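Please, structure for the following, as tokens.
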Amino acid sequence: MLCIWYYPSEAEAKKAVVFTVRKMNFLLETLQVMILSVYYNVEGFLRLFISARKKNVTGEIVLITGAGSGIGRLMALEFAGLGATLVLWDINQEGNKETACLAREKGAVRVHTYLCDCSDKAEVYRVADQVKREVGDVSILINNAGIVTGKKFMDAPDSLIEKTIEVNTMSHFWTYKAFLPAMMANNHGHLVSIASSAGLIGVNGLADYCASKFAAIGFAESVALELLSTGKDGVKTTIVCPYFINTGMFDGCNTKWPRMLPILDPHYVAKRIVNAILTEQAYLLMPRSLYVLMALKNILPAKLAVLLGVYFGAFNFMDAFKGRGKKQQ
């Protein structure tokens, strides 16, 4: 019997090895994903019943934009008793000083106020440099400043549309550019974006506002992934998406079903946000019903989504709006 032995070439042998390695990597990575998926689901379920441990922010430098009123002020007061150094930015100098006084009454020892128009890139960079010289490197950045025009798209002046994007979106780019390098160098810090439920789903009469908040969320998510991919896992991120808050910014807006989608109490919102920061929660939606609504948005047919929008009054939220581009939140 004649036997013919086949010896693969070097190139064919390398291809076989590469194929085998890729197959093993695929199996191992798939197994890893399956195991971790179970672990993270169990972890998430347990957190519904067990409170996460809160980090200590004593000595941390917390910068809050839009701190002169509303949610910005209330968050400052929440941090005041936690031993953090407060850096308060606002375009309203008197309101900012009042926040500082209230924070000191709440126990804050170091409070610094700065007049800053967050829509102005040059001013953000200038004031940021001043903060670094006078206070130090910011370790918790809370982008809270924002405005709303409350006009339908075709009725909104170009200048107000541009201002909405500049304050609600572009200012986040400039504050991150100013303070993120130090956080990355230390692999320590926290970036917080106070966005909106209007950044998750379009709202009739809020085209420019929704666009600005969608962009803010996308920006924050992208930077969070960049930090993870570069190994800077010590810099945490939190994205906050609340429904309308009773601060005057959306004065006159109403809700069709207040038990399911209530107009939120600002003190409750501020406490929830600070708790999310202390427990390093990646996303915070308020009220909890938003988690269900957002899940439905992604799986329902478009026509059914519109039907539910009518049911929940999404087309009439802004009918009685009385706000005038007020500061957030």
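Residues 324-329 have pLDDT under 50 and may be disordered. The chain has one domain: 61-311.
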